[in-house]
Amino acid sequence: MDEARMMAAHASLSGMASLAQPVSGEMDLGGAPMPQHQDIRDILQQIMAITDQSLDEAQARKHALNCHRMKPALFSVLCEIKEKTVLSIRGIQEEDPPDAQLMRLDNMLLAEGVAGPEKGGRGASRTLAAAAAGGCANDNSIEHSDYRAKLSQIRQIYHSELEKYEQACSEFTTHVMNLLREQSRTRPVSPKEIERMVNIIHSKFSTIQMQLKQSTCEAVMILRSRFLDARRKRRNFSKQATEVLNEYFYSHLSNPYPSEEAKEDLAKRGGISVSQVSNWFGNKRIRYKKNMGKFQEEANIYAAKTAVDATNAVTQGKLGSSPSTPNSSSSGSFKVSHSGESYLNLQALNGDAYQSSQLGANIQPQMDSLHHVIHATGRYDSIAGNPLYEPQHIDANGRWPSSSTPSSITSPAADLGSVNSDASN
DNA sequence: GTGCATGATTTCCC
DNA sequence: GGGAAATCATGCAC
């Protein structure tokens, strides 16, 4: 203890003689020092003298002082002084307002499914739902499981660390409390001081917890951004997927609006998602319309392919094959399920007859394909008068004739027995 | 590195 | 809600 503090303590004690009165319960009304006062002065003198003594002497003196009958009273007074001075000042400095940042972190961890009860991750499911709206189903399913696994890892680490911190906090608090209680026998430590110390410890551990929460949030953010980036990452479709989509597009050129059923079928066959099919058709329609010349060659290739399939189907039909003979197309989906005779008769049908024939929609893909072949081979002109062979499928407004009300019957299976808007072409 | 192709997203319209 | 159009962002050939 330095001289200044000793003097301060001395002054305090001198002024606090009155505080010690209740303990002794005796007072010299004439102002003469009572025996108790003399005791206190003696104790203080001894305390002051400790610094001048050797270690052994000091220990012995300390022990003697601890056993002194006035010690409880003295400690009580010192505790009171401490509370009135140092601790009150600390109290003002340390009482922080509720931490908004901590609340934000807690909310975010709850929202992401890291904190709170296990629920498969609300954030995860939300992200998964968002991802399911687009992107390859197969790839996404992998990414989903990957995302969930990583989120689960983060959750585990977070809870493990949190538990460690809480345990450490509890252990340390108990340790400090025991220490202070132990020390209260040799130095003035009030219960309030212990309580305050516990609060300080909790506050420090709370800061550490906040750092943990912050790190966890950052990890979740990084994970999410990686996942979302991966979702946005474009990958070209497989050759098969592109072929399946192009086959459908060019064989339904007059009305390239696949129904939900057709989209599902295309998605299944192409190994992509339905929304990817929708995206593809959206892009294709626009890009085809913008630059038909560029797509002509591609159109001819697919048209020829489909036409060959159609011809095969026709031939087989003429030869008396079963009406349900599968299309020889590699795609194997757009099947000609009616006889070749019906197909040939179609060219002579007017709109009404076409509708009543109940097969126009099914034949239309082949008609579209043939149109392209004919157009490409210069034979278009000779049959241009036939309303079935429109040189363009897009009207003056740049729209497909039925684009405002796309046919819901574009799937080969669904085409059966229904009226296709293509018939007007 | 550049330009084109292409899948995905966004915004607007009906 | 679905589609058109514009735009973004990436893949890929050169």
From TrEMBL:
Pfam families named among the record's database cross-references: Homeobox_KN, PBC
From the UniProt entry, list the residue stretches annotated as the region Disordered: 316-336, 392-425
Q: What superkingdom heads the lineage?
A: Eukaryota
Domain spans labelled Homeobox: 228-291
Q: Which GO terms describe its molecular function?
A: DNA binding; DNA-binding transcription factor activity
Q: Where is the PBC domain?
A: 35-229
Record InterPro entries: HD (IPR001356), Homeodomain-like_sf (IPR009057), KN_HD (IPR008422), PBX_PBC_dom (IPR005542), TALE_homeobox (IPR050224)
Compositional bias of kind Low complexity = 320-336, 401-412
Gene3D superfamilies reported for this sequence: Homeodomain-like (1.10.10.60)
Subcellular localization is given as: Nucleus
Q: Family, per the entry?
A: Belongs to the TALE/PBX homeobox family.
Give the protein's biological function: Transcriptional activator that binds the sequence 5'-ATCAATCAA-3'.
Q: What is this protein called?
A: Pre-B-cell leukemia transcription factor 2
